[in-house]
Write a structure and sequence with these properties.
The complex is a heterodimer. By secondary structure, chain A is an alpha+beta fold. Chain A is built from six helices and ten strands; from the N terminus they run αββββααβαβαββββα. Chain A has a six-stranded mixed beta sheet. The chains are: A alpha+beta, B alpha+beta. At the A-B interface, helix 2, helix 4 and strand 8 of A face strand 4, strand 5 and strand 8 of B. Strand 8 of chain A pairs antiparallel with strand 5 of chain B.
Chain lengths: 192, 155
């Protein structure tokens, strides 16, 4: 019996390293690996592969968002601060703008600096951003411009987490507790 | 304002009980300091000219319903009352024109809910600054509240 179980156990070990019971929402089987071509905070073209090597959190938003975006980024910042000191630099947060008309690389750089060194702003052409939002089945929508040209953007409030190889692992929603986020993040850092 | 000052002088100089009563009636603001209780007033400092959010708790300790209809500040080109909503994983925001607070009730402006949207900052704000924001009410004197400027990660 042990003889036939061995390959089974081995294959489970190989494919199911992340057969983990996430406290937030498991997306390992439903979301594709991280892939994009965007523009970083220095205005340089970047691809997802350049961010591999560290677990990555991905969040869509825009800087003219006074409440939800800073609140979500603050929650992530607080979760990162609760990790062991050695783990904190092993996480990166990609904040992807869905409002590239206002969010230039420079604006993204100043904005993300307010949340911590782990936060990286990405922007780019609408078509490139759409490719990424479509990939994770999220949408965004521009509100009407007011007399001064200001407009709101409704957008996904979910945060997607990827392992250091860019494989999708879990998703944080608004209702997930801080303990759940810290637990999952810590496990992700520990295990790749 | 000068008319109010004159009235105030007249009230102060009034010595009779009747004069005192008239004084209280003429200055609802003086009475409303007891009827309105604003606590936990803070705003985020965000880089550049990006709009910031202001949060507070407004307690109505008066016997009448209080209606918040707007806000203004010398530190911002424009201030609006907004509400964030989250439906099916989509976050959106909408302006709010009036908010009623019943007697004895408290209205909370907090992250991911009601917030003051502070737009077009006039100068540069730093953490620790106190920013005067005037809350405007229906049929009631406006109330100036000092909001503490805090870093975004403090909330």
């Amino acid at each position: 019996m042990l003889r036939w179980m061995f390959p089974l156990v081995l294959s489970l070990m190989l494919t199911g390293c992340f057969d983990h019971n996430w406290q937030t929402n498991d997306i390992a089987d439903v979301m594709p690996a991280l892939e994009f071509g965007l523009v970083d905070e220095s205005g340089e073209a970047v691809r997802a592969g350049e961010f591999s090597g560290k677990p990555t959190l991905l969040f869509f938003g825009f800087t003219h968002c006074p409440d939800v975006c800073p609140t979500t980024l603050t929650r992530l910042s607080a979760a990162i601060k609760r990790l062991d000191e050695a783990q904190r630099d092993e996480v990166q947060v990609l904040f992807v703008s869905v409002d590239p008309a206002r969010d230039t690389p420079d604006v993204m750089k100043r904005y993300t600096e307010a949340f911590g060194p782990q936060f990286i702003g990405l922007t780019g052409e609408r078509a490139r951003i759409d490719a990424l939002t479509n990939r994770y089945r999220v949408t965004y929508e521009y509100g009407e411009k007011d007399a001064r040209g200001n407009y709101n953007v409704s957008h996904s409030s979910s945060v997607f987490a990827f392992d250091s190889q860019g494989e999708a692992r879990f998703m944080i929603s608004d209702i997930d507790s801080m303990d759940a986020i810290v637990g999952d993040l810590s496990y992700l850092v520990e295990n790749g | 304002m000068s008319k109010r000052k004159q009235e105030l002088k007249r009230c102060i100089s009034a010595v009779s009980l009747r004069g005192l009563a008239a004084c209280l009636l003429a200055f609802p603001l003086a009475a409303s300091a007891d009827g309105l209780d604003v606590t936990d007033a803070r705003m985020r400092v965000l880089p550049g000219d990006t709009p910031a959010a202001g949060y507070f708790r407004l307690g109505n300790t008066s016997d009448n319903t209080v209606v918040l209809v707007g806000a203004r500040s010398d530190a911002f080109g424009r201030v609006e009352l907004h509400r964030s909503m989250n439906k099916d994983g989509m976050a959106s925001m909408a302006p709010v024109s009036r908010l009623e607070v019943a007697p004895g009730e408290e209205l909370t402006f907090a992250p991911q809910g009601y917030h003051l949207m502070l737009m077009a900052p006039v100068g540069t704000l730093s953490v620790g600054d106190e920013v005067g924001i005037t809350l405007e009410f229906e049929q009631r004197e406006p109330l100036v509240v000092d909001f503490e400027a805090v870093p975004p990660t403090a909330m």
